[in-house]
Amino acid sequence: MDRSGYVWISTVCDLYSKRNDYIWQLSGGQLHLLALAGSTALSPEILILDEPIAQLDPKHAREIYEILKELNEKYHKTIIVIEHHTEYIAQYCHHVILMKDGSIMWQKPVKEALTRVEELESCHIFPPQITRAAKIMLEKNLLDSNTLLPITIEEGQNIFTKKKHMTDCTHERKVQEKDERVVEFVNVGLQFRSVKGEPYQLMKDFYLNIYKGDKIALIGSNGAGKSSLMKMMIGLLKPQVGYVNVCGEKTKHYSAEELSKHISLVYQNPEDMFIKDCIRGDIEFAMKERHIKDYKDRAKKLIELFDLQDIQERDGRLLSGGQMRRASLAIGVALQPSILLLDEPTANLDIATRKEIMRTLDILKDVVETVVIATHDMQLVCDWAERIIVLSSGYIVKDGQRHEVFSDKYVREMVGIEPPEIFKMGEALNIRCYEIDEFVSAYQQEES
Prior knowledge:
Elements (H helix, E strand, L loop, with lengths): L2 H10 L15 H14 L4 E5 L7 H16 L4 E5 L3 H7 L2 E6 L2 E7 H5 L2 H6 L6 H11 L13 H5 L9 E2 L12 E12 L7 E12 L3 E6 L5 H8 L7 E6 L2 E2 L5 H4 L3 E4 L12 H11 L5 H11 L15 H12 L6 E5 L7 H14 L5 E5 L3 H7 L2 E6 L2 E6 L1 H5 L2 H7 L5 H8 L2 E2 L3 H12 L1
Parallel strand pairs: 1-2, 5-16, 8-13, 8-14, 11-12, 12-13
Antiparallel strand pairs: 3-4, 6-7, 6-9, 9-10, 14-15
């Protein structure tokens, strides 16, 4: 591939402006894009990608699949993706190979494959939300019995009836007003030193209040400042201007270790949380080092709470994705922090394991008062968050509940937010919904 090809790849991957930066200056999502750009730049005839959009914001995820589509259709490259997001499979793939227990069960055209709903779900794979919604509606006689299940929004528009007026089927959560501040960002300015050129200014005149009991989702594109925000809260980064206040203490006066009595961060890569040779040892470690009485009893309770009994003697780095996430959450709450920060808790996980993590998050409401999650998983945002903060280039561009954020098409376009597929299907049909059962209920109301 000539130099123009390299420029094309780096530009589409949104890395051209970073071409002179060092790798350690990139965010996790930007590192993922860099790996993809490097592999593609070799111009192989066959490109195999394992979870190509893991850790990527929705805008970049869509762009990555557009790149792969062009490589396939224009340059005749063979593309093989290992992918759990079936909505992308529906839009971009031609064939599907289903594997189970190390064996190939079948290979079928994408339309036939994704409409085998029961078979896929038995393998803990969830077809597109639109497909599952249509399947339920067929079973409830809300669609003609001869209807072929749709797998894309375009197909859904040809099957589902558009409402004349907006039908709102959402079950909005009643969120109580909160007034006790546990984290304050006051006039914060954050710069990163650059080996070459001027320092990079990520934040300037930044203000934010987090209240006791908040369940916050931080969303935004890769490099928007989500991880930096969290690192300032736990004291790993110190602002050059202004201050961050955590539970009444200015972080610039305290070390990360001292702040850990108030706040804990569960890292994006859970294996970074493991330092001992077994899960039980990892959960006990921080409590033991801080001379907490009865630390073994508390570790035992956490092991039971997060369903880790059968794997407590195993090395955390050798566990499955879901097991590692549960174990890292147990480590994160071991010191009983009042504030828990989670960085991409569902990244790299299949849909079934993501649901398992959702159930685990429900446990946290009885363990931790305030939880902040940085995520690109919009279904997690819709299902869990009570408050959504949208970041762009170090600034807050939206702060509100899900109906305020996802209904703002300007913000969605600016930041590249992709709502859940069923929400977009509903938008096209004048139905406001976030979940499959809400979508189906819009048609059940007409029948009843």
